[in-house]
């Protein structure tokens, strides 16, 4: 046996030994998860026990990243733990997660990134259907897009919060890479239509103008729907992501065609319960202000006074007053924080209504 073969053999023996230890420890962790479920069920004496705790998972993943010493990167290590946690949670109670479908959308990818692959993902064909599914307790949580770094806020999602009783329980950011896809036997010189969601078409506008300027662009309900159509329709192509390409067996004609290389979409996790503080949180509120001079100043000044950073502010037309507006605001901190409560108290003096949409951990991955 050569020195090289001997050295490789020793390393592989070490790997086998480590794998056995990892497997044993994962099963020990899984047993702990089952024990947690038993304790919760005995305490609640019903099936209403809450098994998924967003603040606890965020704390665990932050700890994983803080103590990581490589050579695996922090985010890669956190993703591995996310999947372990997902599998363990499924032993307690498999979760149903509603998302903006159909199967193969970026929203499904965001749901799996946040919850792991051991959940049961439930596609819905519209954002309001995701909300209704969670409100009706058909799904435990829902995942909806809220903001894209290129195209801005997704107004339909914001408008749903005006009437919905659901809370924001978390957020996840997903780097969006668009690809031009076609069936394997497609003659590219004969492509007549390019299908995609209207936002994806907008995010790839300059690339399309330069490379496929004469081809008709057709907006459809989702990128996954575009991929499904192209699978069955000759002389067509689709703009979609890796998941849709794999699901429908399409060939990648051109990769990463988005105009902005850092193109990112932020998704919200919606549920029925408030989330306790995790130590690094964000809060979202809706504020309806009186229609008077200085209204925006009176809204923003308390945040400055109490040292709270805003991360997003958007205006939406009020449904109850023709010329009134509702402000959607994201800011750092938890609703129960003392300085946040002070801000809410001061704003309440000028506002017509304040609606707390939720406080939730800042996205870890």
From TrEMBL:
<dbReference type="Pfam" id="PF01842">
    <property type="entry name" value="ACT"/>
</dbReference>
<dbReference type="Pfam" id="PF01817">
    <property type="entry name" value="CM_2"/>
</dbReference>
<keyword id="KW-0963">Cytoplasm</keyword>
<dbReference type="InterPro" id="IPR036979">
    <property type="entry name" value="CM_dom_sf"/>
</dbReference>
<feature type="domain" description="Prephenate dehydratase">
    <location>
        <begin position="96"/>
        <end position="272"/>
    </location>
</feature>
<dbReference type="InterPro" id="IPR018528">
    <property type="entry name" value="Preph_deHydtase_CS"/>
</dbReference>
<dbReference type="InterPro" id="IPR036263">
    <property type="entry name" value="Chorismate_II_sf"/>
</dbReference>
<dbReference type="GO" id="GO:0005737">
    <property type="term" value="C:cytoplasm"/>
</dbReference>
<comment type="pathway">
    <text>Amino-acid biosynthesis; L-phenylalanine biosynthesis; phenylpyruvate from prephenate: step 1/1.</text>
</comment>
<dbReference type="InterPro" id="IPR002912">
    <property type="entry name" value="ACT_dom"/>
</dbReference>
<comment type="pathway">
    <text>Metabolic intermediate biosynthesis; prephenate biosynthesis; prephenate from chorismate: step 1/1.</text>
</comment>
<dbReference type="GO" id="GO:0004664">
    <property type="term" value="F:prephenate dehydratase activity"/>
</dbReference>
<keyword id="KW-0456">Lyase</keyword>
<dbReference type="InterPro" id="IPR010957">
    <property type="entry name" value="G/b/e-P-prot_chorismate_mutase"/>
</dbReference>
<dbReference type="InterPro" id="IPR008242">
    <property type="entry name" value="Chor_mutase/pphenate_deHydtase"/>
</dbReference>
<keyword id="KW-0511">Multifunctional enzyme</keyword>
<dbReference type="GO" id="GO:0046417">
    <property type="term" value="P:chorismate metabolic process"/>
</dbReference>
<dbReference type="InterPro" id="IPR001086">
    <property type="entry name" value="Preph_deHydtase"/>
</dbReference>
<keyword id="KW-0028">Amino-acid biosynthesis</keyword>
<keyword id="KW-0413">Isomerase</keyword>
<keyword id="KW-0584">Phenylalanine biosynthesis</keyword>
<dbReference type="InterPro" id="IPR002701">
    <property type="entry name" value="CM_II_prokaryot"/>
</dbReference>
<protein>
    <recommendedName>
        <fullName>Bifunctional chorismate mutase/prephenate dehydratase</fullName>
        <ecNumber>4.2.1.51</ecNumber>
        <ecNumber>5.4.99.5</ecNumber>
    </recommendedName>
</protein>
<dbReference type="Pfam" id="PF00800">
    <property type="entry name" value="PDT"/>
</dbReference>
<keyword id="KW-0057">Aromatic amino acid biosynthesis</keyword>
<feature type="domain" description="Chorismate mutase">
    <location>
        <begin position="2"/>
        <end position="96"/>
    </location>
</feature>
<dbReference type="InterPro" id="IPR045865">
    <property type="entry name" value="ACT-like_dom_sf"/>
</dbReference>
<feature type="domain" description="ACT">
    <location>
        <begin position="284"/>
        <end position="361"/>
    </location>
</feature>
<dbReference type="GO" id="GO:0004106">
    <property type="term" value="F:chorismate mutase activity"/>
</dbReference>
<feature type="site" description="Essential for prephenate dehydratase activity">
    <location>
        <position position="265"/>
    </location>
</feature>
<comment type="function">
    <text>Catalyzes the Claisen rearrangement of chorismate to prephenate and the decarboxylation/dehydration of prephenate to phenylpyruvate.</text>
</comment>
<dbReference type="GO" id="GO:0009094">
    <property type="term" value="P:L-phenylalanine biosynthetic process"/>
</dbReference>
């Amino acid at each position: 046996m050569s020195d090289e073969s001997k050295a490789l053999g020793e390393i592989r023996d070490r790997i086998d030994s480590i794998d056995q230890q990892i497997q044993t420890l994962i099963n020990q962790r899984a047993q702990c998860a089952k024990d947690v479920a038993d304790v919760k069920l005995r305490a609640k004496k019903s099936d209403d026990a809450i098994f998924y705790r967003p603040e606890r998972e965020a704390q665990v993943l932050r700890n994983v990243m803080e103590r990581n010493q490589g050579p695996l990167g922090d985010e890669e290590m956190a993703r591995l733990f996310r999947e372990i946690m997902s599998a363990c949670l499924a032993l307690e109670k498999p979760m149903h997660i509603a998302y903006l479908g159909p199967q193969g959308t970026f929203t499904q990818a965001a749901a799996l990134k946040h919850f792991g692959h051991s959940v049961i993902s439930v596609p819905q064909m519209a954002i309001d259907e995701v909300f209704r599914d969670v409100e009706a307790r058909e799904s435990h949580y829902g995942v909806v897009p809220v903001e894209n770094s290129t195209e801005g806020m997704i107004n339909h999602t914001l408008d749903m919060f005006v009437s919905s009783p659901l809370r924001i329980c978390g957020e996840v950011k997903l780097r969006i890479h668009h690809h031009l896809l076609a069936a394997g036997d497609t003659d590219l010189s004969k492509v007549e239509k390019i299908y995609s969601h209207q936002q994806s078409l907008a995010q790839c506008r300059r690339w399309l103008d330069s490379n496929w300027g004469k081809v008709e662009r057709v907006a459809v309900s989702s990128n996954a729907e575009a991929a499904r159509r192209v699978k069955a329709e000759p002389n067509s192509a689709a703009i979609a992501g890796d998941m849709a390409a794999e699901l429908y067996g399409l060939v990648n004609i051109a990769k990463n065609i988005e105009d902005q290389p850092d193109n990112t979409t932020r998704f919200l996790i919606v549920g029925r319960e408030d989330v306790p503080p995790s130590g690094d949180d964000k809060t979202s509120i809706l504020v309806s202000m009186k229609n008077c001079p200085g209204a925006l100043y009176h809204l923003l000044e308390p945040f400055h006074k109490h040292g709270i950073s805003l991360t997003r502010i958007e205006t939406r037309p009020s449904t109850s007053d023709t010329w009134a507006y509702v402000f959607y605001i994201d800011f750092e901190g938890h609703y129960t924080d003392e300085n946040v409560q002070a801000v809410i108290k001061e704003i309440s003096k000028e506002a017509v209504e304040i609606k707390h949409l939720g406080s939730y951990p800042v996205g870890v991955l």
